[in-house]
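User: two proteins, same treatment. go.

Assistant:
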Amino acid sequence: MSKNLTLGLKIAYGLLVIVLVFLFFNRYSTKAHSPEDTIVYQEAELELEVFYNRPYKKEREIFGSLVPYDQVWRTGANEATTFTTNEDLLIDGSFLAAGKYTLWTIPGEKSWKVIFNSKMYPWGIDADKKPYRDPEFDSLVIEVLSERN
């Protein structure tokens, strides 16, 4: 092998290692502040699963401030929250086919829209902090009244 090719391969390998270390560090340092969690519900043959990253309030005003009203939210932190059902469901009288969905919401002062989207996304938001959600893949959108506890 020529010296230039060997040097080029060593540089490429070094850059690859640096990028992988950065991605690993970025992913796990982010997860430390918003840890992953999975909730599973089973009854007879029905199995429901929600995978999400748990955001912390940290004394912040969330809805209407950090998460603006009337704008799509990824419903959690980091990756888009996913909802999986092994059976068809009726949700608020509307049909949702068995499958895996990303879960999105549009918070409002008086009601929230809950969106089941059939597309899987690599992360919840893009570099401009805009949700990845593509409305063409919305399988079900329902609206529920909001309540303050």
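Protein 2:
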Amino acid sequence: MLAPEFTPLVIALLATFCAGGIVIALFYSYIERRSESHKRLATIAALGNPREVSGQSFNSRKKSIESTLREIEDAQKAQKAAKPTLLGRIRQAGLSWSSRTYCALSVGAGALCLLLTLALSGLGILPALGFALAGGLLLPHLYVSFRRSRRFATFSSEFPNAVDVIVRGVKAGLPLADCLRIISQEAQEPVRGEFKLILEDQTMGLPMEQAVQRLPQRVPLPEASFFSIVISLQSRTGGSLSEALGNLSKVLRERKKMKAKIKAVSSEAKTSAGIIGALPFVVAGAIYLTAPAYIGLLFSTLIGNIVLGISAFWMMIGILVMRKMINFDF
């Protein structure tokens, strides 16, 4: 039993505890909501700071980008090391020939060179066979190389417009496949045909990344490689595709401007090289028209034939040197 003098103190303490319990019960839900809101705000603040929460994800994404670039670089090195086959060069030229067609054209070109040599020059059968062999091997090869180079130049000129179509389509909310379909219908050749092949590969079951990676194999140009790298990185690591392709479009257009500047600067050197290369033939033709007996010794005597052979050899060396000097790799 408590003493009478402690009874008011005990009653006061009990009353205080009761009042405190009532206050806590009334404001408990409010306090709990405040604590949860503070937790959410702390989490959001931490998410906004990449050093605290996003550091690991940022580093993992960086490592993923580096590994992707390394894989693509290794694949491109292997592709450059492997020279295209005959059928590959024919396809890159935009021709539908088969190997038999190419061989038949080579035989036809050789036979035509043989007949023209026998009919126009009056040489023996052995020199004529040499000219026929050279014509049969070189003429189809040169034609395919010419068509291939012209097709690549057209692709480089039209490709930035296709990338701009993809950028505008992605910004408007269209899927990448729909943007590629628009290009395959509206773009100019050969860009239209190459994007049709990408859609056909995707229809056959290939992922978009692998379908786009086959583009540099068909068109071995830096522009196609850049596009393949951007699509591969975006599909593996994420990011803004429109921004990446927009930067790619700027790079391609700057490269196009630089090519035009280089062409303008080197035009004088190319003209001079052409005049120098054509001058011996022009002079020989003029001498043949004015004094055929004077220059005819080069064709009718053994010493003249030797002089012609040596002159042709050094003329070829000079043309190759001038060609190396006026061509710029870009």
